[in-house]
UniProtKB/TrEMBL annotation:
Its EC number is 5.1.3.2. It comes from the Bacteria. The keyword Isomerase applies. This is UDP-glucose 4-epimerase GalE. The keyword Isomerase applies. Keywords: Isomerase. It comes from Acidithiobacillus montserratensis. The lineage of its organism: Bacteria, Pseudomonadati, Pseudomonadota, Acidithiobacillia, Acidithiobacillales.
Amino acid sequence: MKILVVGGAGYIGSHMVKRLLQGGAEVVTLDNLSGGYRDAVCGGTFIYGDIADSSLLSRIFSTHAFAAVMHFASYIQVGESVQEPAKYYQNNVSNTLNLLDMMVAFEVKRFIFSSTAAIFGEPQYTPIDEQHPKNPINPYGRSKWMVEQALGDYDRAYGLKSTCLRYFNAAGADPDGEMGERHDPETHLIPLVLQAASGRREQIRVFGRDYDTPDGTCIRDYIHVTDLAEAHWLALAHLLAGGDSCAFNLGNGNGFSVQEVIDAARQVTGKPIPCADEQRRAGDPARLVADSRRIREQLGWQPRYADLDKIIADAWRWETR
């Protein structure tokens, strides 16, 4: 079983490469290293390049007979997408279509897509299930929703089967300490809190303490990156067994507030972690929590690392490296 992992040098992609290798798959990673790191790819074949390069893709697909393609090579910063929408539509939409067209040309029929909870926009209810209305409020979310809709068309026209996995908040790091989160710039709460704990930043900023939540801070659903990789593995098995195209929300189903994350990090690290209170940010919902019953029932997915302390402890081990 040979799998092409696009964006496999990034945070989630690198954990996926490790899970595939553990499962006995032969892995080819394609990454332009704009947001990833060569040393994060723990095995298999690495190819430096971009999915915008049709000639390169043609050579890769001519050389390797892939059972499936996994796609993690997207830009992900919401704020940047508002400032530079062209960058997001070019890479996240146009380049992805380039990849899908190459799959059609070489008759590779299975595709795993890294999607996002941002396709839902402002939540009308929580927890958010797969039937929740899709109304993304920024170019990042719109770019992902555009691809999801295109995948439906590619299935109907070309028989290309896909699974879209909609993440809420990926967090944590490889329990063995081999890889972890190192975005530049970093925008995710847990690594920012741990950078404050390690002294790499002076403090953690808390945007709003007047939300309708028990402690007044926003509540989010955090999922360990290893559990995320396992969900992709099960989605791959589903497609390889002849399963139909589908989409799943991925989260623990339990939300943790910003203050709960800070308190847990203080407990795990033994560090004081100074905070600075600031005004709410525009567009920050009070609660974002996933209803992930569908993937649990249909694919048998069960998060092993749902405990917040475990997520933070693994991320802290990586931060201290």
